[in-house]
Amino acid sequence: MDASNKKNLKGVDLMEVNLEGANLEGANLEGANLEEANLQGANLEEANLRGADLEEANLRGADLEEANLAEANLQGTNLVEANIEKANFQLAKLHLANLKKANLQNVDLIEADLQGANLQGANLKEANLQGANLQGADLIEVNLEGANLQGANLKWTYFIRANFKETKLDGATLEGADLEGAQNLSLYQLSKVKTLHAAKLDEDLRIILQEKYPALFEGTE
Asked: Global pTM?
């Protein structure tokens, strides 16, 4: 299927359709039903998927660079090793999505729902996750260099060995989060979060933080 001419597929029903390796660059798929569709390795660069239903679709290795997926439903979607650089996921539903080793550099995930998502080993350099919900998500060994996590819900999130170089954490909720072995995570960054109640930290950081900022470890209502 060749939609390189920006074919208008707005609102079409493509449920369970096999589009493996398809060229859909720049295509208009706004509001389309792609539930359980096979888009493995597809080219969706600059495609418009705003409000589309991609629940449990297979987008493994797909190219979604600069695509618009604002308010799209990607619950349980397979995005392993996908290229999602500079894409727009504002208010998107990515609950339990698999984004393992995906390239999410400079992605807009403002207020997106990533509860329980697998982002292990993903590249989130300079991504905007302001106000996003990542409760219980797996961010083990994720690159968060320069990422914005201000006001994000990071309760019970796994950040083991994640890179926090210049990551913004102001007002983030880190209750129960696992930050053991986190790289480039400073005392200053953690002093700006909303709470560290029940969080797992390297012992040296924990001792200093509890001494200087004991309120961060108090239970929340």
From this structure: 0.94
